[in-house]
Amino acid sequence: MQKTNRESLDVKKLGSRGANDRLKSPELTAETVELTNPGSSHFLAAGLRKELDLTIKGSTGYYLGTCMDGPNITVEGNAGWYPGDNLTSGSIRIEGSAGDGAGQGLYGGKVVVTGNCGSRTGQLMKNGTVIVGGDSGFMTGLYAFGGRIIVLGDAGEKAGESVLGGTIYVQGAVASLGQGATIKETGTEELEQLNNLVREQKLEPADSFKKIIPADR
Amino acid sequence: MYEIDSKCISCGKCETTCPVDAITMVEPASAGDPEPKIDMNACTYCGACAKNCPVDAITIEKSTPSNTWPEDEIAEIAEKAETGSVRVRGTSARRELPDFDDLTVRNAQVSRPPIDHYREPCETKVNLGSRHAEKPLELEIPIYIGAMSFGALSKSAKEALARGAKEAGSAVDTGEGGMLPEEREISDKLVVQYASGRFGVSAEYLQSADAIELKIGQGAKAGQGGMLMGDKVSQEISEVRGTPENTDLISPARHMDIVGPEDLKMKIRQLREIVDWEVPIIVKFAAGRVEEDVKIAAKAGADAVLVDGMQGGTGAAPNPTLENAGIPTLAATSAAHAALVDIGLREEVDLIISGGITSGSDIAKALALGADAVSISTAALVALGCQVCGLCNTGRCPYGITTHIPELEENLDVQKRGHSVENLLDVFTEEAAMLAMLAGKTSLFSLERQDLRALTKEASEMAGVPLAGSSE
Description:
The structure holds two protein chains of two kinds.
Chain A: E1 6-10, H1 11-24, E2 32-36, E3 53-56, E4 69-75, E5 89-94, E6 110-113, E7 129-132, E8 145-151, E9 165-170, E10 181-185, H2 188-200, E11 210-214
Parallel strand pairs in A: 1-2, 2-3, 3-4, 4-5, 5-6, 6-7, 7-8, 8-9
Antiparallel strand pairs in A: 9-11, 10-11
Chain B: E1 2-4, H1 13-17, E2 23-26, E3 35-38, H2 48-52, E4 58-60, H3 71-83, E5 88-89, E6 103-105, E7 126-128, E8 137-139, E9 143-147, H4 155-167, E10 171-173, H5 181-186, E11 189-194, H6 203-207, E12 211-215, E13 227-228, H7 235-241, E14 249-250, H8 261-274, E15 281-286, H9 290-299, E16 304-308, E17 317-318, H10 319-324, H11 329-342, E18 350-354, H12 360-368, E19 373-376, H13 378-383, H14 406-409, H15 414-438, E20 452-454, H16 457-463
Parallel strand pairs in B: 9-10, 9-19, 10-11, 11-12, 12-15, 15-16, 16-18, 18-19
Antiparallel strand pairs in B: 1-4, 2-3, 5-17, 6-20, 7-8, 13-14
């Protein structure tokens, strides 16, 4: 069914708290919402539990979509630290780069960063998927309990540090492995499944992935 | 001392109920029925065997032949030598520490009149977290049940605590393990914990809370993260926590996104945005560098700070941490109060104290030293039948409190024990009120430092209270 009901909110006028109030308000019935002038504001869409498509026309600050459950967000810019923190369901697509901790504590849904990510991507993840179109920094997947992280570029030092579960797939170079992590091969069928996810995001599929998992798995 | 007398019928119940497998039924040297054989190095004197013996044939009594080499230490050394591992156990520090018993309340006589406890009322209601929250935590009494997770505790224990708290007009804290649906359903007021492992955290979890406790640390394992051993991570617990089954769940020692004061400020603001600024944010610390931590939390925007002293309890922690890290609750209470006064935020930020609170008189003294409320945990477990044996981490609690084995959990009667928790909260409140009124106060919150005197020099210095017999 086509969603036709649209609304536009100016973050510069409302502030992040005002924008969040409006997004959460039962009076907002639009299924498609646009946030203009985000000005790298923090906490946008924090705790939002609605089925809606949200487009942010610019860059965002810290904790974009923290604890969000349901919405699909597209950021036409970069994001600060911890986008998608504790996401339960829905998705965040950042058409740029993100700071540290993208997808931190993810429980479900998807966080996609088409550019590069800072350190500790997907730390403390329990489930869900993080896709990084470029490189991911230091300690990718730190303390992860589950879920999967797909890095199409390189991974920084100590990838998979202290992982207890989950899988980190890296197409490019892995600077070094973290404590408690090991590298295995990715099978053909698994590679195809991963590339289907990558294609869905209009990113270039990989020729192969290094698969980082807990050493005792 | 451990004795099995001639009433023993060789039923083997002691062997099956021993949570540490210290008892083995062996064939006797001569003819006869099997007899229990006790491994005294493994025995923790929990009393499960004696309690479950159908003919009362077992007598168990701890004796200490040497102060230098008490039985506990000998057993622990032997255990280290055998296993190569640090001992992990439950409950709290066992060493002697200065506490609220080292203070006494100065009663009123002629200089001010006492209030008649049996005829006049005493104010006990408290609102916590009104600094920024639109809906402060309103409690009938200044005592609530502290953070103990579903996982560390059984479902029955969590339900009984929630029932007791509700009936007493109080609150219960989820602990670090997500929210058991039954706990939310039963509770009138629910504090949800947000800890470094982020187990079970979601918008639904946080938005269903009456207050959020941002746990930085806890007194029992100061400077370390939560710990739930894999044996206790059942399917239901793994679903609530969003983690794999039977995996050790050891939370990081710090929040991975809080490494300084500015990060704490961001975290508090983040939580406020998720809950639309409605409910209080309580920042919980293990008492260590109390003054600095309290000041930072208060300046970062906390509605309340909870300082958990060295006597705080746990379901599992390394023994060296339990016994050798942190600051006693008595000292921490005074230090936290002084820190808030020092930065001019004493009126705005509420102070909650926990760790080894064993009576209403402890509560009265904590309030006099500056606390606005206390949270209790081990005492509430004692109301459920806990013997404080420290075997919580084994998952084989014979009283059904820290176990997920259905046959053991059946030993906990939720209705009956819920009522016991209610009784305990009522009596603690009455005891505290009794002391306030004999000091001439009509409100628990009118108690003040001047109402106290110290019985030891150590307590005097730690609490900043004059020695008994001295003037101000």
